[in-house]
Amino acid sequence: MNNFDKRPLLIYDGECQFCIKWANKFKISTGDHVTFIPLQNIPLDFSYVTRAACLKSVHFINIDDKTSKGAEAIFQLFYSSNKARIFFILYKWIPPFRFISELIYSWIARNRHLFS
User: What does DSSP assign to residue 32?
Assistant: First the structure.
C-alpha cells in the first residue's frame, strides 16, 4: 500500500486549474473513501507512477496497489467510493464503452487548459 494512508489514492496535477477544480468536486462526492494528492506533492522516489505519467493523466492507486490511469482511474475512483459503480462495470466489460471513454478522456486531458 502507498505510504499516505490505508485508503485508495488519486494523483492529479496540482498546477492545473481544471484538475484542481475536478479533484475538489470528487473529494466532496467521495467523502473519506479516497485520498487526493497533487502530483507535485508525491515523493521523488514514489514507485507507483512517474511524475511525467501523472502530467498526462490522473492516476488512481487502489488499496491492493493496482494503478489505473485516465478514464479507468476516474471510474475506479467512483467504484471504490460506492458512487456510480455502473460506469466502472461498463468500462471493464464493454469494450466499446472503454474505447469511447478513453477517447473522450484523452481529448479532455490534451485540451484541459481550454477548460480552466
Answer: G
**Cβ atoms within 10 Å, residue 82:** 10
- pLDDT tens for each residue of 26-64: 999 888 889 999 999 988 778 888 888 988 999 999 988
Please tell me what DSSP assigns to residue 63: T
Domain boundaries of the chain, sorted by first residue: 9-115
User: Using CA atoms, how far apart are residues 5 and 8, in angstroms rounded to an integer?
Assistant: 8
pTM of the model: 0.87
Give CA–CA dist 74/26, Å, rounded: 9
Helices (H) and strands (E) in the chain, counts: 6, 4
The packing angle between helices 95-110 and 85-93, to 10°, is 110
